[in-house]
Specification:
alpha+beta; Jelly Rolls; Arc Repressor Mutant, subunit A; six-stranded antiparallel sheet; four-stranded antiparallel sheet
Length: 296
């Protein structure tokens, strides 16, 4: 468990309650994510945490209520989201079972993303305070994109950081006092940069590789790099890198007698089980079965 996520006030507040931490990770761009599970009734208070929090309800939450001085509101359910800006105060009466995902990010990160999108400063930026709001895109993204990733495996770090950026862009476009006009990307990477970049990726497939690292190599912002990369190669950076990892594994399985654990390490996977799952998902066969079939 990393030190930085432990310093997030909302994370720290929850860790002092009966909430059970299921999973957490740093996303490579300064933001962090955690999945929590609560079953017992409790009161929870957040006071000016100093960082923003996006909460997406995964299961339960029907009996939770947000308390105000003269009233309370309900409406929690799977798929609902809450946005808690860094300067907000809130009190929650937690009752019944609930499972939720938190994305923690700073005001600086949000402004930085706005600046990278439009290549200009964004000082006037205010995130809305929302409770039990329905956003099908966020719910689908959290459930179908973020959760299936292996948060602890270095091979998925590029996918995690890219996912975090996509969430921040969605929040900018829909829940900020800021009109995010996404610029049209008319061209891709220059041919010489395409060649250099692919060579760099091939020589670092055993490393985590993050979107920020590749963007710096191309001398572009992460936002513009991701879009120019897709325009050049037809797929997002994280998908391209994952396919190259698996293609290398395919070659090593066919041309070497290296143990599966060694192959997984050389292809950038932190664990053999994650490598096997990814390989089976992509090739529809396990690495061991693939090697056996090639030998026969």
């Amino acid at each position: 468990m990393s030190d930085s996520i432990l310093t997030q006030p909302v994370y720290h507040c929850l860790s002092q309650t009966n909430a059970v931490l299921e999973n957490n990770a740093e996303l490579g761009n300064g933001s962090s994510v955690a999945i929590w599970h609560r079953e017992e009734s409790d009161l929870t208070r957040y006071q000016h945490p100093g960082h923003h929090t996006l909460s997406c309800y995964l299961d339960g939450g029907h009996d939770i209520r947000r308390l105000f001085r003269q009233r309370s509101i309900g409406g929690g359910a799977p798929g609902r989201i809450c946005l808690m800006p860094g300067n907000h105060e809130s009190d929650w009466d937690v009752a019944g079972e609930i499972r939720f995902m938190h994305l923690y990010f700073s005001e600086q990160q949000l402004k930085g993303m706005a600046e990278r999108i439009q290549d200009k400063g964004s000082n006037a930026l205010e995130l809305q305070d929302l409770t039990f709001f329905e956003d099908r895109w966020v719910n689908h993204f959290c459930q179908q994109v973020l959760m299936p990733l292996n948060w602890q495996d270095k091979a998925d770090q590029l996918s995690l950081s890219s996912a975090s950026d996509m969430l921040l862009i969605h929040l900018l476009k829909n829940y900020c006092s800021y009109e995010a006009t996404l610029p049209e990307i008319k061209g891709g990477l220059a041919p010489f940069m395409q060649k250099k970049l692919l060579e760099y990726i091939e020589s670092h497939l055993d490393q985590p590789l993050t979107l920020a690292e590749l963007a710096i190599f191309a001398n572009l912002s992460e936002y513009h790099f991701a879009r120019m990369f897709k325009r050049s190669f037809g797929v997002p950076p994280h998908q391209y890198v994952m396919e190259r990892r698996l293609n290398r594994a395919n070659l090593l399985l066919r041309s070497s007698t290296l143990p599966l654990a060694e192959i997984s390490m050389q292809c950038g996977f932190s664990s053999q089980s994650h490598f096997s799952n990814r390989f089976r998902s992509f090739y529809k066969i396990t690495p061991a079965a693939f090697r056996k079939a090639q030998a026969s």
